[in-house]
Each structure stands twice: as C-alpha cells, then as structure tokens.
UniProtKB/TrEMBL annotation:
<feature type="transmembrane region" description="Helical">
    <location>
        <begin position="436"/>
        <end position="456"/>
    </location>
</feature>
<feature type="transmembrane region" description="Helical">
    <location>
        <begin position="313"/>
        <end position="329"/>
    </location>
</feature>
<feature type="transmembrane region" description="Helical">
    <location>
        <begin position="349"/>
        <end position="368"/>
    </location>
</feature>
<feature type="transmembrane region" description="Helical">
    <location>
        <begin position="375"/>
        <end position="394"/>
    </location>
</feature>
<dbReference type="InterPro" id="IPR050833">
    <property type="entry name" value="Poly_Biosynth_Transport"/>
</dbReference>
<feature type="transmembrane region" description="Helical">
    <location>
        <begin position="400"/>
        <end position="424"/>
    </location>
</feature>
<keyword id="KW-0812">Transmembrane</keyword>
<keyword id="KW-1003">Cell membrane</keyword>
<feature type="transmembrane region" description="Helical">
    <location>
        <begin position="229"/>
        <end position="248"/>
    </location>
</feature>
<feature type="transmembrane region" description="Helical">
    <location>
        <begin position="90"/>
        <end position="114"/>
    </location>
</feature>
<feature type="transmembrane region" description="Helical">
    <location>
        <begin position="33"/>
        <end position="57"/>
    </location>
</feature>
<dbReference type="GO" id="GO:0005886">
    <property type="term" value="C:plasma membrane"/>
</dbReference>
<keyword id="KW-0472">Membrane</keyword>
<feature type="transmembrane region" description="Helical">
    <location>
        <begin position="129"/>
        <end position="151"/>
    </location>
</feature>
<feature type="transmembrane region" description="Helical">
    <location>
        <begin position="188"/>
        <end position="208"/>
    </location>
</feature>
<protein>
    <submittedName>
        <fullName>Lipopolysaccharide biosynthesis protein</fullName>
    </submittedName>
</protein>
<feature type="transmembrane region" description="Helical">
    <location>
        <begin position="254"/>
        <end position="276"/>
    </location>
</feature>
Amino acid sequence: MPDDDPDERLADALERVAHGAVVSIPSTLAQRLLALAFTAVLTNGFSAGGYGLFVLARRIQRFLRSLTRSFTTGLSRYVPNTDTDADRDIVATFALTLALAAATVFGVALYLAVPEIGRLTAKGAEFELYLRVFALGLPATVWLSVVGSLLQSLEEITPMNLTLRLGFPTLQLLAAGVGLWLDSLLAVAVGVLVAAALGGTAALAWLARERGLRPRYRGPTASSLRGRYLRYTAPLFASSIATTVQRLGFYPLIAVFLTSTAGAVFAVGELVGMLVRLPLFGINQLMPPVAATLYGGDHHEALAKLYHATSRLVLVGVTGLAVPVVVFRREVMGLFGPAFVEHAPLLPAFILAQWIACAAGSVGILLMMTDHQRAMFLVNTAITAGLVVVSIPLTRQYGLAGVVGVYLLMLSLNNVLEVVVLWWLEDLQPLTVAHLKPVAAAVPLAAVTLVGHRLVPGLGGAVGATVVGLAVYAGVLLWLGFAPAERRLVGALADRYRSVTPG
C-alpha cells in the first residue's frame, strides 16, 4: 500500500539499519587506507616502471578474477533461502566448485598465453614472469573472494570484514614490506597470493567450526539446486564481461600501447580517485536493506526521500574530499614518489570522474533493488561497446591522457545513463535544489585551500590548509542547513555506533 506518512516509513526503515553497516563502513575505510599504504610502499621502494609491470600483470589477473565473481553472486540469493543445512552446504560447495573451475581454466589460459602477450606488449621477461605467477595464483585469489561472498550470504559480517577488509590488506602490506626488504617485487607477488590463500582458508575453517559448513555434493535436492543455481548465474557471467571491461579494460589497453610507467600512474590515479569515492562506499553499506524494505512495501515516496537524502550526503562528502585533492594534486602524487609528480595534471580528471560517478548517489544499487538488472546490463553493454570503439584511437593519439579521458567518459556516461533509466522506470531521480548547497560550500573551501597553497607550500601547508578549509566547508553547510531526512539518516547511524561502542 502507498505511503500514509513517508517520513515515518523512512524513519522505521532506517531503524532497521543492520549492524553490518556499522561494522562495514569503518572497515571499508581501513581497507582503502591499507591499500593506499601498500601502493605507497611499492611506488617509493621500487622504480615507477618496475611497479608498473607488477600492477599491469596483477590487474590482468584481476580482470579474469572479476569474471569468476558472477558464479558467487547467487550465494546471497540462495544460501539465506535454503531450508536445511544440507541444502546450504550443497549450494556453497557447488558455487565454490564453479568459481574454482573457472579460475583454473582462466589461469591456465593466461599462463599459456604469456608468450603471445609478451610479444604484443613488448614489456620484457620481468612482465612475463609476473604474469605467470599471477596466472598460477588466480585460484588462490578467487578462493578468498568466494569465501568472502559466502560469509556475506550467511550474514557473518564481522568475520567477512576481518577477512577481506582488514586481514588480507594487512597481510598484503606485510608482503610489501618483505618484498622491499628482499628488494624483489616477485616476492611481493608471491606474498600477496599466499596471503589470499591463507585468508580464505582461515575464514572457511571458521565457518566449518562455527556454522557447521561441510563440503556436500550429494543429496535429494542436489540436482535441482545445482540446476537453479547455474541458470541464475550463467546470464550474470555474460553480463559481467561488460562491467569487467569497463572497470579493468584500461590495463590491457595500457599494456599493449603504453609504457609500464603509464600503467603505474593510471593505477595510482585510480586509487586516489577511489579514496574520494569513500562516502558513496559508506552509504552503499546501508542502502540495499533499507531500499529493499521500502520498495518491497510499496513506500515509493519514502524511497524517494531516502534517495534524495543519501545522494546529498554523498555529494557533501565527495565534494569535501575532491577539492583539496585537486588543489594539492602535486603533493598528493608526491606521496607515491618523484616520478608521479610530473603526471599530477592528470589527477583532476580521475577526481572529476569519481565526483560525477558519485553525484547521483547509489543509483546502481537502486536499479538492482528495484529489480532492473536487465536494464543495467543493457546500459553497461552499450557503454562498453562505445568505449571499445573510441578507446584505441584516443590512446594512440593522446597516450596516457587519452586513456584517462576514456576513463572520465566511461564513468560519466555510466552514471548519467543509469540516472535516466532509473528515472524513466521508477520515477526516482536524485537531484534537488539542496544539492547546490555542497557546491556552494565548495567555493570557500577551494578559496581557503588555494590561498593556503600559495602561502605555505609543501605537504605541511597542504595538511594545514585542508583542515582549515574543511572546517570552513562544514561551517557553511551547517549555516545552509540539512534536511530532516538527512539528519535522521546520520542520527540512525550514530545511534548504531553508540550501541556497539563500549561506555
């Protein structure tokens, strides 16, 4: 039935924000900071070209790993709805088998293709060695990914965060330290794969002990469960090709047409851009259950209020992070070593791409929660086809700047089209007049940081000017005011944090 009181419906839905969101938001921040530290250790400890070879090989492996993730998406759909532990074990075992089989096939294919890839890229024997190591280690990274999905499907959110967002990144950082001590990026590659295997094994052992999970292939319902699971995941595998090309297709493009240093710069620019995206990551931890509750109850007006409030809060956070990074782009790139500073003019394009991608809030999640996966697939396929056409000529003509331009174009088109589709299908759109408030508050933020940049150059000046600028930014936003739905959302999260904080 339609909303009688949208504010009351929204408040009720927010009261049900899961404990998982409270755990996931800080752990996601920690994960990103650990990834930043890992990258900074490697870029400062090794040459930009050497790190570029490492990251290109690893991203090619990640490209293949991403394709296998479609075989685990059904875990969240089927595991919570199984009637018995035996059925749960059958689904989990089948998903793990599918994913590992795909990883083995992809890994063998990549290993066999290394000589041809080496010929096409002309990156040398070191690059081919990294490719072989990551090809052999692909099942280990997929193992960790599948176990993480299984933890999530069983709503074991704290162990999932400890494994994926804290444990593995910490072990990865330790591997970087060992590799630096040994002066070997190969040791880092091996260490990262060992960390993935250990993390996945430890988490699976925990599930076996605490939840009684066991490998199970046979049972009265095994055949029908496997058939349903395969029918569910097979189309998702086809869909994942488009999204994987969008997210990771830049690295094979760089490997073929550009230098290894270009690969290193692109990876660092993308990493910094993803840090700017943190407010959206945080909101996305709570959006699925709240949006599903409101949509399932036909509370459309309350869902619209939620969308408006979350998209505005995301814009507040992303704008506050983006402006200082753009102003102090040379200092930010300097954190990764002198070789990256000369490419600082490209960083604003990465930041603008993420700002545009975040400006509409959780549009992709809302499309999924309103059962429009097919529309998302069509959007992604259309964008991917267009990018394939324009990416090679732009890369050949403009080099790394051309690749970054394609990256900006891809994220912009994806976000705009998803907003249009959601608006058309569900009459939900994110923008209100209140979205101008963070844009207006960004003007004094930019002024303070620019003046600080001129008066006190260097990293110390950048930190000081950023702190002062963000204080001014917050003050202007408070003066402009927040909507009741925004205050309610922040209050719901604050209440949850207080409930789990000692004292």
